């Protein structure tokens, strides 16, 4: 159980509430057919294209979260490197594909199971807030099109604050917006470094969302595999 009673619950967005893999997979599958990518990859199934992209995108986001690359570099590299890894000429990648992906993917509405019912359960007893390292325009679309907007008193986006999780400043900013102390808040997220360790370093208790059952021994934080387990903790 948590060590202190709480007044505010902070959630990460991507991979915690908003099902990034499902939404991105749908968007990429649609665009793969529209752009006829089979002419580049032959019999390579779309699922292999998606899984390759997902691995590269995750690696690049790790670099972005640690300040090693910019937003522009991340967006420029992720699909070109996917082409390269799959044996296609990266210069053949159509730039408009990225534009269409950015227009379609954030409008996908899929959330993790139990997300809405848990937010409904928490809302009467806690103030709810989002802290995301995602890009402003994409975050805003995801929140609006998935029906999340009405649940959160504050939406803290790193691009607007000027620092990324796990930097202490973004958590202090969120605490000030929520008007609570460190011990009165809890952070829930899927990223051990950005969400969990970042929160704990400023004195906020954390819950690791681990839907894939990664074999990690929790150290100083709680772990859940399904969002409905929050009912037992809050």
From TrEMBL:
SUPFAM superfamilies: HAD-like (SSF56784). It comes from the Bacteria. InterPro entries: HAD-like_sf (IPR036412), HAD-SF_hydro_IA (IPR006439), HAD-SF_hydro_IA_YjjG/PynA (IPR011951), HAD_sf (IPR023214), PGP-like_dom2 (IPR023198), Pyrimidine_5'-ntase_YjjG (IPR052550). This is YjjG family noncanonical pyrimidine nucleotidase. It comes from Ravibacter arvi.
